[in-house]
Amino acid sequence: MLRVADHFERTDTGRQRRANEDAYFARSPLFAVADGMGGAQAGEVASGMAVAVLDGGLPAGSGSVEQRLADAVQEANGRIHRRSRDEDALSGMGTTFTVAYLGEDELTVAHVGDSRTYRWRAGGLELLTQDHSLVGEFVRQGKLTQAEADEHPQRSIITRALGPEPQVRVDTATWKAEPGDVYLLCSDGLTSMVAEREVARVLGASTSIAAAGRALVDAANAAGGRDNITVVLFSVEEVGGPAAPPTEQAPVADPDATVLGQAAPRAEDVRRAVAEDERRRAEAAARRRAPRTPAPAADAPRRRRVPSWAKVAIVFAVLAGIVLFGGYIASQSVYFVGTDQQGFVTLYRGVPYELPGGIRLYSENFVSGVSAAQLPAARRGALIDQRLRSRGDAIDLVKQIEQGNITAP
Ligand code: MN
Q1: pTM of the model
Q2: Neighbours of 98 (CB within 10 A)
């Protein structure tokens, strides 16, 4: 049987919004995140009404946990919809709602909108929910990658929410949970600012659930904090399970000082993680070997001494590698402003060149919400000229453009 070992929750206004329209619910073993939208304070009302439906805990009933959570989400939708219809000031309000419940040995999620539930297990981060958003549909159709979707200018348009309609379609699903799992519920204010691999890195490096949660909110703010940020994290442990082997319990001064997801590892998990790690290393080694010269003929002497011309070639290759690597590092300290494929003003890191074979010397750093067509024609060319700039200059320029401070000369 499983239970919640530790949890952390925080909501933050971010750096650009005046108010926080996110809300969360955290009462073990039931957790939720809601991201409200609507004029004035309507978004706050909607997200607050969503989480309030959980005040009594998991709704009673004879149905499955999935059914009972879906009923609760449906109930919240009905309340929000009726109130938005009855009160002019709240007309059009809506909210996302992602609810997670840890049962005896499984996790059940009910979900509407583009807030997310992730599972962190054995060093890997997995998205459990599907975004009900325009770009989410494109990801499912294979037209965009998740990483592209997370940076897309239209990423905040959602296709399903609580509030707009009298009925809402609720996604539910159940997964087997395991001791050591960590679950992350979050609003898009985290995932639109912080790439998934960075979220995974933070979870892997943090020494406690609370430290991880704080680091995630800080990372979203450091990246600009353009939206409200809500993070709910909880870890799972076995109740009355076999104690961890004594060899695993090195004395630690700080009780928090275990790496996330490694608390009380089960022998089986450790074996699996080690095997997985070995497999990845072997694959990586195979990839590194692949592009070299063909394998020597079977009759070639096996333990030949390395001839001196080969030594010279190796030294040359190492030097060339150092020069290329230096060039790469130098190219990463410059930025330029251009447009992306959709014509949005975009901040790029690197230099605006492509090597033969399609190797790009730049990467997209930030896509603004401003289309190049919106810039005054007389200044457009000079603004997005792909001239190399310092990071501060380039960011400042994109900010000026976003704030509409660029006017015709
Ligand atoms: Mn949001």
Answers
A1: 0.61
A2: 28
How large is the average pLDDT for residues 19-44?
A: 94
142: left (phi over 0), alpha (psi -120 to 50) or beta: left
Cis peptide bond prior to 352, omega within 30° of 0:
no
Tokens of 45: 């009302």
What spacing in Å lies between the alpha carbon of 228 and ligand 1's midpoint? 6
Q: List, for residues 155-184, the tens digit of each pLDDT value.
A: 888 999 999 999 999 999 999 999 999 999
Q: Are the C-beta atoms of residues 165 and 184 closer than 8 Å to each other?
A: no
Residues having C-beta closer than 5 Å to ion ligand 1? 35, 187-189, 227
Instruction: Please give the torsion angle defined by the CA atoms of residues 86, 90, 95 and 101, in that order, rounded to the nearest 10 degrees.
Output: -60
From the CA of 111, how far away is ligand 1's center (Å)?
Answer: 15
CA 246 to ligand 1 center in whole angstroms: 45
Tell me, what DSSP letter sits at residue 385?
S
How many Å apart are CA 136 and CA 114, to the nearest integer?
8
